[in-house]
Amino acid sequence: MDIEWFVALAGTQEGEQLALGIAIFSAVTHAIFGAICKSRGDPYFNRAAANIVYSLTSMPIILFVLPFPTRDVAVVLAISFMIHLSYEWFQSAAFSRGAFTLVYPIARGMGPAMTGVFAVMVFGEYLDPVQWFGLVLLSGSIVSLGFVMASDIAADNPARRGLWIAAILAAFTGVNTAIYTIVDAYGIRITENPLTYVFWIFFLGGFGFPVVVAVRWYRLAERPALKPYAIRGFFAGLIGIATFGSMMMATRIGKVAEVAAIRETSIIFATAIGYFFFRETLDAKRLFVIMLIAFGAILIEYH
Fold it and tell me: pLDDT (tens digit, 9 = 90+) per residue, 257-278?
């Protein structure tokens, strides 16, 4: 990639269009990433394995290919590291307590509207009334999809007792998503070569959540075999580089609020994954909500 050409696209119509395409790519890959982390075994171990893979993958790139971050960029990286650690913990905790199609919509739906507000405050972005309506519609519809899924669980089902805990954890995941999106967008914009910021984020990811999970693994009375997690982590790590890296690069040349909102259409792909691979229910109510999500995205981008 010609980085100078890419950076020069910021603020142009061509840059906005490219950012949209990158955000859609990020949406698809993020749904796959979330499904792998939820698929089998302990979500904590799955996520930690993914972090280790993209940290190891990034190491030779940051050491031998890309320039080192400046002091100002290093400060932002440190802040982002802590926010990502919090996000990963809340996401794994939510996945371990609730169905994928409950947790994922709430976690992702909280982000776009909050990111929009933060983007206006931090970057001075402008959204017209139609875009704000689309943003609220998209966020609200995504969150409502999770509760539609939860409504199918019978009141006397023991699994229902853990749903509100899962929903609260998912909501905190969404808050962290909005915060790290803004922090990372700021960091990548003050970095001369945006790939420096991207790959340092991935490298640092191997020193946070995996350490927390290692302590969790050590304390287990029955420790699971690590080979299956290593295999899932390999694929999740490569997909993680694609989804998180593309998202950050999109915010370098496009409007953060719009990119974040379009990226959260990943819920449409996640719902399809939940239906086809996890055998979760998909009926007329869910399809209607998905249509509202798509309509909200259209209003945001094609106002």
Answer: 999 999 888 878 877 887 787 7
> For helices 13-39 and 266-276, what crossing angle results, to 10°?
30
State how far the Cα of 37 lies from the Cα of 34, in Å rounded to an integer: 5
- Distance (Å, rounded) from C-alpha 141 to C-alpha 255? 22
Task: Write down the residue that tokens 């979760």 correspond to.
Answer: 280
Over residues 148-166, the pLDDT tens digits come to 766 666 555 555 556 778 8
Contact between 58 and 230 (Cβ < 8 Å): no
According to DSSP H, which parts of the chain are helical? 3-8, 13-39, 43-64, 71-95, 100-123, 129-150, 163-189, 194-204, 209-219, 227-253, 256-263, 266-276, 284-301
End-to-end CA distance of the chain: 31
Residue 148: both structure tokens together: 């539609």
φ and ψ at residue 268, rounded to 5 degrees? -65, -45
Q: Identify the CA nearest to 38 among candidates 180, 231, 236, 174.
A: 236
